[in-house]
Amino acid sequence: MTAALKLEHISKSFPGVRALADVSFSLRPGEIRALVGENGAGKSTLMKILSGAYSADEGRIELFGEHVVDPTPASMIGRGVAVIYQELAQAPHLTVTENVLMGRLPMRAGLVDWPRAHRTTAEVITRLGFEVDPRARIGDLSVAKRQMVEIAKAIARNARIIVLDEPSAVLAQAEIDQLFLIIRQLAAEDGVAFAYISHRLREVFEISDTVTILRDGKVVHDGPSAAMTTDGLIRSMVGREVGDVFPTRHPRIGAEALAATGLTTRTMLKNAGITLRQGEIVGLFGLAGAGRTELLRAIYGADPVESGELRVKGRTVTTGSPRRGIALGLGLVPEDRKTEGLFLIQSVGFNIMSASLGRILRRGLLSSLLEKQIVRGLIDRLHIKTPNAATAAQNLSGGNQQKCVLARLVSAGCEILLADEPTRGVDVGAKREIYDLLVELAESRGLAILMASSELPEILGLCDRVYVLREGEVTAELDARRTTEEEVMHFAALH
Amino acid sequence: MMGAFMKNLPRGAGLAGALVVLIVAASFISPHFLNPINILNVLRQVALYGILGVGMTFVILTKGIDLSFGSTVALTGVAGALLLEQGVPIALMVPACLALGVAIGAANGFGVSYWRIPAFIATLGTMVMVRGFALMLADGGTVNPGRHADTFFFLGGGYLFGVPTPIYVFAVVCAVAAIVLGYTPFGRAIYAVGSSEEAARLSGINVPLVTFGVYAIGGFLAALSGLIFLSRLSVGDPNSGLGLELEAITIAVIGGTSLFGGEGTVLGTIGGAMVLAIIANVLNLAGVSPFSQQVVKGAIIILAVLLETGRRSNK
Amino acid sequence: MSKLIGRTVALFAGIALVYSALPAMSADQIVIGFSQASSNSAHRNTMTKRNQSYAAENFKDVKLVVTNAEGKSAKQISDVESLMVQGMKVLMISAQDSAAIAPTIKQVMAAGIPVVTLERSLDTPVTLHVGPHNKPIGKLAGKFIVEKLGGKGNVVEIKGDPAVAPAVERHDGFAEAIAGTAIKVIAETHADWDQEKALKFMEDTLQRFPAGQIQAVFTHNDNMAFGALRAIQAAGRAKEGILIIGIDGENAAIRSVDKGDLTATFTYSTVAPEGVIAAHALATKDTAALEKLGTLTKKPDGSMEIEIASNMITKANATQFFCKGFGDDPECK
Hints:
Chain A: It comes from Siculibacillus lacustris. Chain A: GO terms for molecular function: ATP binding; ATP hydrolysis activity. Chain A: This is Sugar ABC transporter ATP-binding protein. Chain A: It is a peripheral membrane protein. The complex is a heterotrimer. Chain A is α/β, with parallel strands linked by helices. Chain A is 34% helix and 26% strand. Chain A folds into two domains: 5-238, P-loop containing nucleotide triphosphate hydrolases (Rossmann fold, 3-Layer(aba) Sandwich), CATH 3.40.50.300; 256-492, P-loop containing nucleotide triphosphate hydrolases (Rossmann fold), CATH 3.40.50.300. In chain A, the strands form six sheets. A six-stranded mixed beta sheet of chain A has the order 6-9-10-3-11-12, sandwiched between helices. In chain A, strands 18-21-22-15-23-24 form a six-stranded mixed beta sheet, sandwiched between helices. In chain A, strands 2-1-4-5 form a four-stranded antiparallel beta sheet, covered by helices on one side. The radius of gyration of chain A is 24 Å and the shape is globular. Chain B is mainly alpha-helical. The longest helix of chain B has 27 residues, at 207-233. By secondary structure, chain C is an alpha/beta fold. Chain C has two domains: 2-131 and 270-293, Response regulator (Rossmann fold, 3-Layer(aba) Sandwich), CATH 3.40.50.2300; 134-268 and 312-332, Rossmann fold. Helix content of chain C is 42%, strand content 20%. The longest helix of chain C is centred in the N-terminal third of the chain and has 20 residues, at 2-21. Chain C starts with a helix and ends in a 19-residue tail after the last strand. At the B-C interface, helix 3, helix 11, helix 13 and helix 14 of B face helix 2, strand 7, helix 7 and helix 8 of C.
């Protein structure tokens, strides 16, 4: 059988960086191939070459046995290649139909034939086995549905090769399951070939037939997924032994640090309550839209609360603003690091000091000398990899950016850490460093940590206890060491 | 190639380079350029517009914009002239006019931060309103305080140790502004708000208060500038200061202040004011025709900003 | 509760305002409409006020209804339309934009209402235009400089906004007057009527031309003349005796001429009270009164024009003109 896609000996350089070196990558019709590697390994460059956005310096592209000369994004779409990016490029004000049939709406007498357009869209959607109104506006749909719409768009264009860039990063388990169902069906019944990029190794084993591992712009492994182990995969990705994914815990749990009872917000939370003790790492799990972020933000004072009581270190308090939260010893690692956590264009030092300027205030002015000392100390202690303290935060890797956020909270004297998806979009290697950091903060500094995550293994591997949220309510409090993924899912999903 | 070259340049290098080139070119173009009196004239221009540039820098750092500067200059000029005409002593008139400027800035700040009106719209509104107040107060014409103006002339038109007074005022403004921006929590908060409002809020920064503050500072500096203009001209003209806000924005942007907020320095703004003042001066010295002057000015502004953004985007 | 009171008060205030704006109509009065373009210059404000006060004192039979277009042509059109509704017998208009108002003026003329344009003429025939002419003023100023300098010397010209006719015409007249003499314009700029811009240009120009190289500064208005004066004084070059000539005849400029700071200014008539006198004459068909106002010319299309000549004000005659110009003057109150 002819290969659907053959990328042979592809090389690509950017000023100062060799992004890809002699990379070969192929897909058979109906094949689901995972593409894994750490950030910067060259995955996105490879995909941009496949989509026609970049041209390769060397190498050859073949689609269905045909040599492609001078690929452009338009010509690659024409040849059946569809790339679905993590940040979906959709027009939120347009309807599902307009998105799916963008640029090729059926016409009649010079006008769009809307009934036919909606019918066509509905057919594609039904074939994919999900439900959505073709007339709905994209902006009103959940992220999962938008992703499906994007796949529908690819199918409507007769895509034979679909590239999925981290599709599951924003999806809950049930949605991922549905996505996988559709992928398998399209691969088996229609012979569509998939390239699947993901950081979640478990998914790689679940969905893919074969796996290509990239490291530093080179292919370090290419073979069937079944012949691979998680450890082997990680070893190949990071190029060294990583040891266990999660650090060993030696919890030393102290007095109650935080107790929230009956938290209710106007839109999401319903009578939610949790407790948190010093030195404890508590997980907060729930499907997308269960209210994880909302609970953390309500406790922190970032969002208004309708009713409920908050006790910090035994004293009943009122929050209501982040400023007040910080004064109480609370600290939030926001969900979206880039827009809520960091001042991207500012220096690492600026970011670290921004919540604790009082520490370096002398006679009303900020002391740069003191600032340098404190920042230097935190960079060392938290192992933040940065050329220096003056480097802009946007030039750091995701993991190091997250450490800057943590360093800011440490500097501000945070005692109760509310971490919202602290390892999202972070490399495997860097994830471990963040886990280590959280464990260190809890175990040797006695911080109470409440960690919201959509990755169950992370919660079960790291936490002491876990609260499960569903539709804004706490449905279970479980011992993280004794429970199972199935049990947690049982409380998280609809009965 | 060009990218690699520019990548290694430090912050502000484009501007510094442009200034050096300008000064060298200017001294070749006109033998009068390096004449000490001419240099003092240029520095006075730097001071007059630079004060507004510094005010605008504060506002733009928070990702804002203030279009009411020119009108505020006109209104404080008219109000000051009227007060002088009534025989109000300078020691009372000056604080009164500065307070008026702060009030206008505070109104802008209130609209932007607490009512969440986009800065462009809020300050466009005050721009028109304040201009109207100025025309109302002055009854359409200029206000001539007559002999009362003579003692006040010192602030904008006088000299101290052979150097025009506005230059001292500008120096003080710059020093204070640089300290506030670089060495106070408020200054940090300004950069933080401009970089990411939500991150600033979550870091415990009182975002509305900071926003309010920068517009009040802007209004204060616009009023200060209005007083200097009044003193220099000895009349309050309600039609003066048209387009000064654009001049101030230009100065800040040439000086490396990013319209997207969070980036910019007082030193850069001083450089921006110098670039503009030198261009205007040398074109006059060279006797370039008035229409060509505008073309040249525009081109040089674009070039200066290109150099700076080129450096930044290649980082 | 307090909100309700507030609203009620606002409502009554609004009603009161509307009533006060309605003209007190009286059967035996002649309604003359005066559509003013804007109130953002002393020249226009003086035009409005002097015509109003003259009418109030001298024409008991006239009801002068004044509207202000606030610088917007669209408002001026609706102003004129509302004046028609109020039954005006004559329309006085100082146009914001000569072209934009033309169609409306055609309708007024077609309705048989005489139209008097003040200061700014229109692109359509009207009954009468009364105003000063810019070109002769520029020429007058030019001739004055030629005479004063004995036919040779260097002049700096500071012009108004290049986009409007007065600046162009004042320049043309001036250029005509100095043509053929040994007077040279050595530097020029458009300072857009702005004093600060004129000041700054003059500062630079004084650097460019050292002592003895500039004999006169010709500015297109008094405001800019003051800017030039400031620069010359600040540079310590007042003793050179550089002539500074302005146009308009602002009160402050007249004082300054008397003091010997400005050399001369040339009045640009505010058409007050000439405007309302002409309108009254048309309403009462009193042609004799019209001819007294100035040189009356009749055009082939039947329209008439009265040019109001400019007065030259120098140190010799300045005192006669105190407080007769326009603009703020503390000594006049």
